[in-house]
Known about the structure:
Blueprint: H1 3-10, E1 15-17, H2 20-29, E2 41-44, H3 51-58, E3 64-67, H4 75-94, E4 106-110, H5 117-130, E5 140-144, E6 148-153, E7 156-161, E8 169-176, E9 182-187, E10 196-198, E11 205-209, E12 214-219, E13 223-229
Parallel strand pairs: 1-2, 2-3, 4-5
Antiparallel strand pairs: 5-6, 6-13, 7-12, 8-11, 8-13, 9-10, 9-12
Amino acid sequence: MSMTRRLTIVAAQIIAADGGANRIYDLHQSSQLDSSIHPHFIIGDFDSIRQDVKEFYEQREGTAFVQSSDQYSTDFTKCLKFIANGRKKTEPEQQHQSPGASETLSTIAFGGLGGRADQAFAQIHQLYMAAQDLDLNAGELFLFTPESIVFVLEKGRNLIQTPLKSGVIGESVGIIPVSRPAVITTNGLEWDVQDWHTSFDTQMSTSNHITADEVLVVTSERVLFTLELAKKR
Length: 233
């Protein structure tokens, strides 16, 4: 079963960013996605969704269209704002729950990397912005490609679970200082570093290999972490 199918089956909500609805529809048509899985919301200015797809979901119960014509936001940004707004509405309810009753929200985005380069950089930009802008705070945010998981490590100590025997992840990782130079220390990699200076205009850690079930990264600044998915057999 593909990672896309695994995660959509357990997702509390599925949101399509405008033309992303085309992709979901086409996966149904090619029997690559369970026919019961459909977007709960389709968000954007609807300049990318095909007419046949739009008509299909308009007639389907359980899918709502949320139109936004904000030309200063990408469709992905509009989706993050929608999720963040929903979180704000549920926070007062969670405050009355017993400790530990609420769960951490994770938002997983498919299809944002691997196409146009400018759109890929926009996705990376949103990873950074979402952690500091309450209007974009959609919980823990992960970008998935067919080959990798991409997410941000916050300043300080980060412990990442990396069980290679799970068959979910591969061995290759990267630590990318996107916003500014950083000093990092790692443990659990083939080529660990200690108080290592990294920046775009000097040196970066790419194509490193996992050697433990947990990888520790201590960083002086927020950095991008890339984790290889296991290859299909």
